Each structure stands twice: as C-alpha cells, then as structure tokens.
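Take a minute with the sequence and fold tokens given here and flag any structure token that looks odd. Thanks in advance.
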Amino acid sequence: MPSSEVTISLIQTSCSDDIEANMEKTFRKIRDAAALGAQIIILQELFAWQYFCRQVDDRFFSWAESVPGPTTEKLEALAGELGVVIVASLFEKRAAGLYHNTAAVIDADGKYLGKYRKMHIPEDPGFHEKYYFTPGDLGYSVFSTRFGRIGVLVCWDQWYPEAARITAMMGADILVYPTAIASLPEEAGEEAEKYLDAWQTIQKSHAIANGCFVASVNRTGTEGHLSFWGHSFVSGPFGEVLAEGGTGEEVVICRISVDSMDRHRTTWPFFRDRRTDSYDPVVSRWLDEDQG
C-alpha cells in the first residue's frame, strides 16, 4: 500500500540545443533527488529538448519518438535502480503526421504504467503548440504508483478547473503539472510578476477546490525570446505553498502527508455539496443570451 508520508521532487533545469546533454543533466538530477529521499520525481515539460514551440519549423518533428520508446526505456531502468516513481514529459510521434505532447509515468519498480496526452493545446505568441501537437485523446488519467495515486496534466491544462476536478474525482492524491511557462520581452518586471502570481494562484485554487496536493514543475533559463521563470512549487490542500524553487536550476524537495486529505475534505466538504444536477451548462462552449 502507498505510504501516507511521501517525498516529492520537482526538477527544474535550463535546456540547450544538445538533447543528449539535456537528458544526461536531468538524469544526474534524478539521482540527486533520490539521494535526498525523493520517492516521486516530476520532470518539466519536454525536459530533454529546448522549447521548440517558440517557433514554427518542421525540422523539429524529427526530434519526436514513440512512447513507450527509447527515452522511456532509459527512465524505466533508472526508476527501477533508484526505486522512485518518475513522471516525464515527452514529444511523442504516434504516426506519420500525428504528434502529441505526452507525459509518461514510470513506477518505482521500473514498470511503465502508461501515458497522458496533453488535452488543452495553446496557440499564443511564442507558444505555437497547435502546429506541433494533436490534442490528447486518452482522456484524464490517474496512475496508481507505489507511493500514491498521481493525476497527470500538462502545462496549459493547469488553467482549466474542469481538468483538475475530473482528475481529482478519479482518485488522484496529487495533481502534477509538467510545465514550460515563460515571459516574453514585453512582459518584463512588474508585468512578469503578475503572470507568475496568476500561474501560482490558479494551481493553488485547484488544490483548495479539490482538497488535494498540486505539484507544478517549470523549466528555467532563456531560450530565444522566452525567459522561463522557474518557481516550481508544491501546494497543499489549503493552497499553502509547501515548497518552492527559485529562478535557477534546482531540485525542489517536499514532504507531504496524503492522509491529511481526508481530514481536509471533511472540514471543507466541497465534494459532498456539489450540485451535479445543475452543471449541464458547463459543457457548452458559451451561453448566449437566449440560452441564459
């Protein structure tokens, strides 16, 4: 059975255009995290690559691979050796012309448990993901690991309370969000702080509304015109920040008590008081005046 006390690690790094070097650095940091007692290790979005979605260029499709595939095989060996759970965000080639932004989950015995394909795909200046990724079609997923039930979502998914709610309702103890979020040059200073605050606030809200833990890991460093701000963090069910990284490369460690969720959900019984009979409108794209 999973232990009540679980140690999570978030690994935030910068990335170069050398994929092998990025991967080797992350693997070293996985070892560092395990040495610090980490049991669940979460990697940032597209951890082995620079964030290629900042531009539209078809040569980057050559970087994609099958999932499971060569990278998951390496992660399986490492997870089994260290006895840790690993959540890794990958660039999946499903078929010719069909690609996904995919997170793989490896259990502490080195077994590949499955994958989650990012559901919400953004298209913004510097974040041209619709060019590269097909929206996920596996639905929301919770993975039962040696150290707890993990609900995996990816980056842009983190702005949608529906995704967090559904995944929590499926039994997740921890919602994890591999992330690549950055500031554009025109968003420097006070504006960048507003974006950072909004990013953390929405995820702390998911923790509160669902009475669970939320762990978000962001990359760091400058890639082209994007400045990734790091600040990977873990939120508890009250929305309290239990651990947080800075702006540089870092292995963030956080100890949580999964058993505390039961007491929290009894104190704030949001699931008990949901009015499921009134929520049909939420599946509409928008409610026009004549529908209100």
